Fold this sequence. Notes:
Elements: H1 2-11, H2 13-21, E1 25-27, E2 37-40, E3 43-46, H3 54-57, E4 58-60, H4 61-74, H5 78-92, H6 101-121, H7 126-146, E5 154-159, H8 165-173, E6 183-186, H9 187-195, H10 210-229, E7 234-237, H11 243-256, E8 260-266, H12 269-277, H13 288-296, E9 305-308, H14 313-327
Parallel strand pairs: 5-7, 5-8, 6-7, 8-9
Antiparallel strand pairs: 1-4, 2-3
Amino acid sequence: MTSDARTELQKHAALLDERRRGGRVRECHGDLHLRNIVLVDRRATIFDGVEFNDEISCIDVLYDLAFLLMDLWRRRLPGHANVVLNRYLSETADLEALPLLPLFLSCRAAVRAKTSATAASMESELKRRDELLLLAAEYLEMADRFLHPPAPCLVAVGGLSGSGKSTVAAGLAAAVGAAPGALIFRSDETRKGLCGVPSSEPLGPDGYTAEVSQRVYDALFHHARSAIRCGHAAIVDAVFAQPAHRLAVERIAAEASVPFVGCWLDAPDRILIDRVERRRNDPSDADAAVIRGQRAADTGLIGWTRVDASPPPEVVVDTVLAILHRQLPATLMPAAP
């Protein structure tokens, strides 16, 4: 494992130096795991940062975050780790750092392995010593696995508004690609970002012109292409009603020589309408009229795997996960042992 880590370090040395020059290396928390985070007035609040050693606290910002991601992953909370990573990248657009994530996660796990083994060597109580040694072995195995992530892939989730695309994408992400899972690019959030409004603020008709919609898809494709190029899996969540958009996302995977799966979610209009009418504080502005308009449009021949999206969300997620296990087995990464 040590030689693999050194190989990764050498491979990304130029990127690490570039990030230092660009201000991505700075004073951070340094010890950002779950035991140093508490809820105060319903807000996550970090404490007990490293103030006594600049070599530990003056680090790459993603290396700081990697401690939290690794800790969530080890505690069998892959979905939480995936949400944290996606939220961080949504706020920072720091996609260029993704090639470093396997190394950063591995280093964080290796540090935990060392501290657990050291604690075991100083423990006089036999049972506790054995527990610490087992924990050290678990961390060491994780450190090795992080250095050998699955190959990237591209997943597209399409369907009319209310079909559950975003729920499915979120349910899939932690199981796809390198830890802590795929990056999710959602058309509704991208549209609001391009229009310069908060995600929960409704857009008027000007936000849904053909020109704006094309800009949205162009942005989604750009982000997905960037993620794949950096060795990470991507999930694109959009209606994909136009054949040209479905072909375009397939072409991204083909040009990058990565596996692709497209899923089209189907459900009766009554279910779609009921779902969108029950939404609150959601980036989507779709309503019953939007769904009827989408249904009336000519989507052309849909060659993607069609999935019945009328059952409860957890059932639909399990169905799509089964599809991915059949079609993309080499790109799925299990959670911590």
